[in-house]
Amino acid sequence: MTGPLQIVLGTISVLFLIVASVMAYRAVRAMVRIIRTGQPDGTRWGPVKTRLKTTAIESLGHTRMLKWSSIGVAHWFVFVGFYGLFLTLVEAFGEVWNPAFHLPLIGEWAIWNLFADIIGTGTILGIIYLIYRRQKDHPRRQGRTSRFAGSNEGRGYFVEAVVLTVGVAILLIRSLKVSSDLTDAPGWSHPISGALGQILPDSPDLLTVVAFVKIVVSLTWLVVISRILNMGVAWHRFSAFLNIYAKRNADGAPALGPLLPMTSGGKPIDFEDPGEDDVFGRGKIEDFTWKGMLDFTTCTECGRCQSQCPAWNTGKPLSPKMVIMDLRDHLYAKAPYLLGEKTASETAPDYDVLKPSDEQVWASGYARIEGTNDAQAHRPLVGTLEEGGVIDPDVLWSCTNCGACVEQCPVDIEHIDHIEDMRRYQVLIESNFPSEAGVMLTNLEKRGNPWGMGGNVREDWIKELDFEVRMADGPLPADVEYLFWVGCAGAVDDRAKKVTKAVAELLHTAGVEFAVLGNGETCSGDPARRLGNEFVFQQLAMENVETLNGVFEGRVPGTRKIVATCPHCFNSLGKEYPQVGGEYEVIHHTQLLGQLIEEGRLVPVTPIDRKVTYHDPCFLGRHNKVYTPPREILDSVQGLTTQEMHRCKDRGFCCGAGGARMWMEEKIGKRINVERTEEALELDPDVISTACPFCITMLSDALTSKKQNGEAGEHVEVLDVSQILLRSMQPVAAGVQGAASGPGVGTEADDVVGLDSAATEHDPKD
């Protein structure tokens, strides 16, 4: 069945294949060379079996994509169609020459034909749905709230058009084989193409043309991406496997929880005796590790991270997606200079002539310099528009480290690590950071807490209790089960001190033997580390480790227990202190209280007629996956009505305090804590509950503002989960240490702790 048409189209197909293959090989080789210019990181290769298992589960199971179920299902069919139906492209080369061609061995195999029919149809339907979603969520409709705002829409359209065309071609070829009687496969093995074949003509030549179109479109796609190395929406089809394999945690957990220690040349920096050529943080694109560069290359521009980012959602210039895009585009534009193919001029160009585009006005970190040139080679990694910076300072310092971007990314990009590494360079090398954060750092260095309070105030809360709290003086006695890490906020902030007292009373009631460090405790170092001052963090951490090791002297692993009320301390002590030699079993107070309730050592007895909504602290929830214990505590309290905000658990919305933002002014856009508080108030709650002192401060401040403006009832309060539990442990109107929220808790004279407020009103349907 080979005629002139087949010979001409077949010859063109083979020649095009040769050209496209050569271009693809050169492109892959160039990408590998570019990525290898990054700093070494030897932690990303093993254990091989675990990493391969994680890669298989995330890829084939689409576990992260399916966080958005309908889009995940559609993408799964497109994904399986791309790889699973690759043989149909091989078959098309034979079909161009001979329409009756079938793959050897499997061409007429019924199972293969059924698979191709179902997946081919699924690919078409999947890409149609994804095209629909791109248009439905398009920036022209949703503006800044669109997750595609800032993405390269043209590239997305191109990829979608290619997938749709190839999918249709696969189904048409199979249908034409049926209509032209060129297949002996049983009818049940091609139900869809068989039905379509009933209305198509008997035309082997048309089959050849369709196969040729399939080849040309596929190879055109390959040629285009070979010319555009930063086309992540296409290249992620290959790089995503490597990026998932090389993710920070081999077991599949996202890159949340601890920050990685600072490294240079692939080795942790010794801050007591750093090397002369050590690189502190990331001040140039070549300072990133090869894994960072692979991250940049893999970004699909899907915007899931952007849609969840609290900074972006409150009008700030930070988009995690565009940070990665900007770094990627800069990397590939500067590549000839990194590879030694070009030499930059000795002096940097004048950047003050640059004018931002319309996009750059609302996304100040967007690309300001295009192409490969001396300006690209000299531009600073972080800098203003006038300085030609790749990342704007307002972008860098808007991050709260909430982890929403990392949690949602389907290809495991480690946004927070890259942002923090750039912050480290700005703080340690450039000394360039928000001025108010400098006050916090000074307080940490001189006073051991961010507020600058004297060390002797750390024991004041103990004086307000009616029972004795044991002080750790040397190694803990054998009967002491837990060291209670109070934290800076829990010791010096009035609102957090109430939580500290509530937890202490609950532990005392349950008969848990615990001790505190008192004035011997200092800041965990979290604010310094999240700001980017690794040096101060190391100092504080090593000081605390020395103290803690003395307290736990002689104790074997499993008995070095710490309970903390602050999720930031909980994360630092449990996840980051092992980096400096501190190995402890750290538990959050909601976890311990939940255990005590389960064991029957704490029994809530007093019903509390309150409507509560719970706010997930980012460093307790997303960073450490503690979602259930706080909710179980609330569920154990009789009379309590709970309702979730629509953004909760792994999609919870930040309070705005993380990433050292607690000590920085929020000058751009809407305040994050106000946004979150408004979301809570939409449920008409009596109590906004949480389990973090920073969250309590941020939500309380926003609630106070709302009350002053008449936008919230005076009876509404912000309480830690432990405070609510403590109220339920006491008879009505009993005075409870730490349970009250402040003046005006209730409206009745004898309602000391606000257990029966007459001001509580609900919608009848509630």
TrEMBL record:
SUPFAM superfamilies hit by this protein: alpha-helical ferredoxin (SSF46548), Respiratory nitrate reductase 1 gamma chain (SSF103501)
Regions crossing the membrane: 6-28, 73-90, 110-132, 157-176
Alphabetical UniProt keywords: 4Fe-4S, Iron, Iron-sulfur, Membrane, Metal-binding, Oxidoreductase, Transmembrane, Transmembrane helix
Source species, domain of life: Bacteria
Ranges for domain 4Fe-4S ferredoxin-type: 290-320, 387-419
InterPro entries reported in the protein's UniProt record: 4Fe4S_Fe-S-bd, 4Fe4S_Fe_S_CS, Cys_rich_dom, HdrC_iron-sulfur_subunit, Helical_ferredxn, NarG-like_sf
Keyword Metal-binding appears in the UniProt entry: yes
Location of the region described as Disordered in the Swiss-Prot/TrEMBL record: 736-766
Protein name stated in the entry: (Fe-S)-binding protein
Source organism: Blastococcus goldschmidtiae
